[in-house]
Amino acid sequence: MACDGDWAGWEGGLEVPHMRHRQEGCLCEFDVDAQNFFAPLVRRDRVEIRTPQCSRFGSRGRPVAVRTPRQELIIMYPSQNLRAGGLGASGVLLAAVLALPASANNCTCLADLSGDGEVNGADLALILGGWGTAAPALDLSGDGVVNGADIAIVLGAWGPCTTPVNDTCSSALLIVPGTYQFCTQNATTDGPSLPSNSCGQATMVHKDLWYQFAPQSNGTLTVETCGTATFDTVIAVYTSIFDGFASCPTEGPGLAVFVGCSDDDCGFQSKVTANVVAGKIYKIRVGAFAAGQGGSGALKVSFSHPGESCENSIQLSYTASATVIGTTLDNPVATEIPNSCFGGFPKGPGEWITFGVPCFESTEVTVTTCYPITDFDTVITILRFDFDFNCWTTFITCNDDSSQPGCDLNGLNRKSFVTFTGSAGGIYRVVISGFGGSAGNYQVGIGMTCNF
Fold first, then answer.
1. DSSP letter for each residue of 241-306
2. How far lies 114's CA from each of 14, 146, 340, in Å?
């Protein structure tokens, strides 16, 4: 069958100006006018139609499964009253519209087809309505056809579905940079409406899940579902007016502050990037654009801040004296530094600091973490930038456990102290990392004397 052709006269005012056939079984794609085609559900311009037979569209009284861009499943039945021009076959009549994910394999209540929070007669009716078709969202057993095996799955899962552990803001999961699989199929809507005109067309985050992130440093937080979710997602981020408080927007006005949100920043998925402040707790709300819609996906969390890498180091410019207080707790492991002071033991996360020697001649430079604030077994590594295409070129020196005064931690020499000759105008990288994979808070002092 050739799917190309103009469709006209569809009941309800739908006109399909173009239909493109794709040779993948019986799958056709065509563009639609979203204003006329199931407007409450469809906001974009592509719909997929799967027919049981390629030879005649919707023939022999068999239903057709349609999946919209936002993953609603539409079961359509043949009707002799409608005509699909150019196809030589009868048209189709809408029978049911279901808010279903494209794939619910990661969801804990797969048989809840109607999305009402439990497996019951509504789900059984949907199976029976799609009997004999190859509708992916109804084929729970994955055998290619809706049949008795799918009924058995529904009956075996009969009863209420269990809500996710982070279904409410008060039960938000604490997360760090990484990727987190989720399923909103059985979630409820816990949070308030979004501020007016703050998130494109989205006004609510439906069936939301909650996470929280507590940055150890000032930086940039990015949370996204791009390329991972089976439904149209919305992400909103909140924080508290009080440092250290995990305030929820569900607790009433005045405590939680809306930071930002995203509806469709990457297709039908979401991506929020926000500047965050150390000491604050950020609530991350992930859910659906459409009411009742749910599915599976992955929340990708990344955090960037000065000091996390050589290329994004803390910049001190040219200075004869400087003190930096920070942490390595939210930094990646400094894998690229030499092993000279680790003795085969694992390296910990590293904080990168760049400074220049402002003297007109070579001078002795001291770098130390021997301060009370430093609370872990540090290693100081000194590297030199040689004005080439590398972030650093030459290893200068390093120190693990110094016997200098103030370098003990719990009675043992665990903090670091180094001296080296800095060249006039030279640029150096200081890496504060942890011995044996350790990490923590630090204070580092950098000093030298210039003879001007």
1. SSTT----GGG-TTTEEEEEEESSSBTTB-EEEEEE-TT--EEEEEEESSTT---EEEEEEEEE-T
2. 26, 16, 61
Q: Judge contact between 427 and 356, C-beta under 8 A.
A: yes
Distances, alpha carbon 72 to alpha carbons 41, 47, 102, 199, 368, in Å = 8, 10, 8, 22, 60
- Cα–Cα dist 433/442, whole Å: 10
Q: 293: closest CA among 443, 153, 104, 160?
A: 104
Tokens found for residue 250 = 């569900």
Q: Which 8-state DSSP code applies to residue 142?
A: -
- Other CB atoms within 10 Å distance of the CB of residue 410: 7
Question: What are the pLDDT digits (tens) for 316-338?
Answer: 989 899 999 999 998 999 999 99
In sequence order, the 6+-apart residues with CB closer than 8 A to the CB of 430 are: 352, 353, 354, 355, 367, 380, 381, 382, 444, 446
Per-position DSSP letters for 65-101, written without gaps between them: EEE-TT-EEEEEEEEEEEEETTTTEEEEEEEEEEE--
Please, what's the b/e burial string for 270-295 (b: 16 or more CB within 10 A of its CB; e: otherwise)? bbbebebeeebbbbbbbbbbbebbbb
Would you give the end-to-end CA distance of the chain in angstroms?
86
CA distances for 99 relative to 118, 185, 263, angstroms: 14, 10, 18
What backbone torsions phi and psi does residue 205 show, to the nearest 5 degrees?
A: -105, 105
Q: Are 310 and 286 in contact (CB under 8 A)?
A: no
CA distance 228 to 208: 16
- Over the stretch 347-357, which tens digit does the pLDDT of each residue have? 999 999 999 99
Q: In the predicted model, is pLDDT for residue 147 greater than 80?
A: yes
Mean pLDDT across 246-258: 81
CA pair distance 130, 176, nearest whole angstrom = 43
| 9 band by pLDDT with thresholds 50, 70 and 90 | very low
**pLDDT tens-digit profile of 376-422?**
999 999 999 998 889 999 999 999 999 999 999 999 999 999 999 99
CA of 129: how far to CAs of 57, 124, 136, in Å?
18, 9, 14
Over pLDDT 90: what percentage of the chain? Answer: 56
Contact criterion met (CB below 8 Å) for 194 and 204: yes
Q: What is the CA radius of gyration of the chain?
A: 30
pLDDT tens digits, residue range 127-145? 999 999 988 888 888 788 9
